[in-house]
Each structure stands twice: as structure tokens, then as C-alpha cells.
Amino acid sequence: MKKILEKEHRTLLTGAEAAAHTMRQLRPEVVPVYPITPQTPIIETFAQFVADGFVDTEIINVESEHSAMSAAVGASCGGARVLTATSSQGLALMLEICYIASAMRCPIGMAVGSRALSGPINIHCDHSDSMMARDAGWVQIFCENAQEAYDLSIVGQKLAEDQRVLLPVMTIQDGFTITHSAEPVALLPDEAVTEFVGEYRALYPLLDTEHPTTQGPFALPDYYFELKRQQVDAMENVYAVWGELQEEFAKLSGRRYRGLFEAYKLDDAEYIYIVLGATAGTAKVAIDRLRRQRKRVGLLKPWLFRPFPTEEIAQALQGCKAVAILDRALSLGSWGPLYSEISAALNTVSARPLLYNYIYGLGGRDIRPDQLMSVLKDLEGESDANVQRFIGLRE
Amino acid sequence: MIEIRWHGRGGQGAKTVAQLLAAAALRGGLWAQAFPEYGPERSGAPVKAFTRLDRKEIRLHCGIYQPDLVVVLDPNLIEAKEAGVLEGLKRQSTLLVNSPKSSQTLHEQIKFLGRIVAVDATRLAREAGTRFANVVLLGALAALLSSQISLVHIKEELAITMSDKPKALEANLAAVHAGFHAIREASAAEAEVPLC
Prior knowledge:
The complex is a heterodimer of chains A (395) and B (196).
Chain A: E1 9-14, H1 15-26, E2 30-33, H2 40-51, E3 58-61, H3 65-78, E4 83-86, H4 88-103, E5 109-114, H5 128-132, E6 139-142, H6 146-161, E7 169-174, E8 182-187, H7 190-197, H8 224-253, E9 261-264, E10 271-274, H9 279-292, E11 297-302, E12 304-306, H10 310-317, E13 322-327, H11 337-345, E14 354-359, H12 369-374, H13 376-382, E15 388-390
Parallel strand pairs in A: 2-3, 4-5, 5-7, 6-7, 10-11, 10-13, 13-14, 14-15
Antiparallel strand pairs in A: 1-8, 6-12, 9-11
Chain B: E1 2-9, H1 14-27, E2 31-36, E3 46-54, E4 69-72, E5 94-98, H2 103-109, E6 115-119, H3 121-128, H4 134-144, H5 151-161, H6 166-185
Parallel strand pairs in B: 1-4, 4-5, 5-6
Antiparallel strand pairs in B: 1-3, 2-3
Helix pairs in contact in B: 1-4, 1-5, 3-4, 3-6, 4-6, 5-6
């Protein structure tokens, strides 16, 4: 096999290209795909790697995302390492099979270029697609930038294939904002990644005809519940395995993703922002500017959304005055999805901070540091807590 | 940080030079970010692309609203309202325009009090053997940013991008060179853009 990278190398890549490099270095046996904006450059770049002989993968060009995920489940049960990618309507069409992938404990890795769900039809970023899939039994990792999209999908694949977990993992990067934006990315040498993830050995591969197994059978009221309980346990194991793998990855790369979320200037923070994905970068700029005005503010950026780091986040928020929870998706008729998680997490905390919910960036609406900074006035007591508000909306 | 906005028409290579500049900056040890105006691309329609340069990691992931530098690949775009060439320009911003006219003539034509630099990029590109003015403007921009961006790094990046097209590479290298020297000779580089 031809090698691209012999040593670590920082290069200008879009988030999509970074994700494609991860796919190449993970050396999947099967990649069933269907193109969709803004995911398409991920799979285009990967297909070029395959065509140029940099990785030996069977790409299955299917006729829809429903088929892509079905083929992924089939190939994974066969014993292959399987990766794919999607966005928005593609994820919606896959969703039926996504539940089956997790229930059949297929460690499929999927890059998601997060994009608004129709309608109205829109190709730009928000998190409505990923949030729609939050109950599908997949591990969900949100990435701030192209570097994280690269790093965390490497760690994510090892996590997926860990026998204490065996769950599919989606690594989510903001559509266009990250998928189409070029930034410096430090890529690891090919061999280092290969060694880090190791070879995938399925426990009961269907293609092992010497040891035939039944997979995906009917489970009636006498077994269904227990099988779901096993998925609960697998999810719970993610916390510990994530920690172990990040230590290992830090040794390999020098990049340390400590904990289940990034704590940015949280230590003495009275007011805390919580946000997922690319906006966390913009929020760090806002936090720095507010700090220069002597405001005690910080940012909590969850890497993991499923499983949700409930206990750790509750501990981090305990005792602060107020929290701004920024959601890039709606759960119509309720709070933003992130807000609901945080609110539930704080049930065990005695010194419960005031919570403020902001919906922002739907359908690709841009968000700037000054808009994030202006939220602080609410938190300092100018506005009531427990009200859903909108940033950057014309009313 | 320096924020740059590129204006062109779909197919003129605004996105390509936005990325080439970022890659060259990275080669020189800067942090850089390049992104196109998101959305469906249509050949011939006005398009924008963006580049950010800084000495430290760039964490911003929002659009650029008040650019320090605006580069116009297609002179007709100045008159086209929908292109928004003058949007968000600050008094201290620089407008680099592909135009056979002089900076003075452009000043009379454009409602912008800041610095206007004109380069006849279409002609220089043709003389260099390419129909793309974008690389000429990239060279010109390198001259305006010469304490941050090295012409050598731009040439190295071009060589990688066009490694399989030696003839086109030669023309592009000549074009980038021509743009650089057009600015140098006009000694417009006296008011360099600082990386603040």
C-alpha cells in the first residue's frame, strides 16, 4: 500500500479533507456511501484516495442513504471495519437503520457534516440532523474545528471497536463552517494511526462459516428489554474508555482532550457559556474579550453529547451564578436539546445556577462574538432565566 | 489578525487564491483560515471568498464583516451592487482592484476614501500566458503583505497545486511574479498592511 505520510505534518485542509484523511488512515474494508451536501467532499476525497491506491477499500455506491446504512450493517456483521458519511436528509433517511446498527452492536464510524433538516429546504449548518439521531444509540462526538474532526474520529473508531463499547460512533463537524473551511491540521503518520486503532476483529463475524451465528433476530417481550439494557451498559462504559483512549492519544499526538468536555477558563467563572461544535471557537474569542473587561466568564464545550457527561457537567456548573446554554437546534414544543440535558444534569446539585436558553444559527445563520458577548447582560440579571430566547433573529 | 475578502465570478478562481494565500501563510509559520462564501456555486455569478491570517491560532468561525483588505478579481463587480465590494470597508482598509485604470481614476469612480491599489491583472495574466487574473492579484497581495507573506512560499504552493501541469505552472509562476513586481515598482508597498 502506498503511504502519504511518513511523519507528522501540518497542512492546510478543510474539515471534509481532514475527515477523509482519517478514513484513509483507518483503512476500512468497506465504505458504503451516498453523496449529500455538505458531506460530499468527505467521500469525494476518500474515493480519490481509493482510486489512487492509497487505501484498499471496497466503496459501495448505493442508491440512497437507507441502503448505505443497511450495507454498512451487513458488512459490519460480516466482520469488516465499516465507515461512511452523511448530512441532514441523508441521516434522516438512514435513521431507521441507525437504530438497528447500534442494537446489533456494529462499530460503524460515520462522519456527519451537520446541516439543517428540511423544510424549508436548506443546505447550511445547524444541529437538527444530529439531534434527531440522538436517541439512536450512537455515540455522538461534536468537533470544534478540522483538527478535532481528524483527531476525534480516530479516537472515535477505537472507542467504537472497544469490546466494552461496541457501538457505532458519529463524529460531527459543522457543515460548511468546518467541512468547507481550510485550516491548519496536524496529521499523524499513517503507521501511527494504524497502530493506534489496531486491526478490527469482530467477535462473531457472519463470514466465519465454521462458527455460524444468528444475528438480528426477532426479540419479543421476553428478551427485547434485556437487550436494550445491554446497550445502556455499553453507553455507560464509554465514559471510562474515552478517558483511557484520550490518554493514549495524547501520548501519540501531544494533543490532549482531557475529560468529556473542554473547560475553557472555567476555574473562577461566575457565568458559563455552553455550546457545541464550531461556535465554541467563536465563543472563546467572545470569552477572551469579556475577560479583558474583567468579566468572570468561561466556556464549557461538550465533546460527547451521547453519552451525555451528566455528572461531570453538573460538578463543573455547581456554584456558578448563571449559565447560557446555546442550542443550534430546536425541539419544537420544548427547550433546546442541550438545555434539557443541562437542566436534568443539575437536578443533583444543591447550588443550582440560573439557566438561560438561546437558540442560534438555524439554517446557517451566522453568529459573531459580539452577539455572544451581549448575552452576558441577561445572565447578569437584566432578564429572567428559564425563558427561551433567539440570537440573530428578525422578529 | 488580517481579514481578507476576495470578490470574483464563479470560475475565476477566488476560492483557489483564498486557499493558496492561506497555505503560503502556513508555510511561513502563520496561522491561516480560508473559506468560500457557502452555498451552491454558479459559473459567472458574483462570488466571495475569505482568508484570515494571524500569528496565533484562529478560533473564529464566523464570517468576515469588516475586511482589512478587499481584492476584486473582476473590475465589473465594482459597479455591480449585488456583489457588495465596498461593504464593511474601514477607512484604513485597502482595496486591491484588477483594473487598467489608475488608482486616481478609480478614486473618482468609487465611493471609498481609503487606499485603492490598481493592477492591470488581466493584461499581466495574458502576457504571462494564462487567462486567470487571480494569481496576478495573489502576487500583488503578497507585495502588499510582504512582511507576512513570502513570494517564495506562494510559488511553492503553486508548484504543488499544479505539479502535473508544468506548462500551466510556468505561466502561473510568471503571472504571480508580474503581480508582485507591478506593486513593487509602483512602490505602493510603502504603506504595508500590518498584522495587528
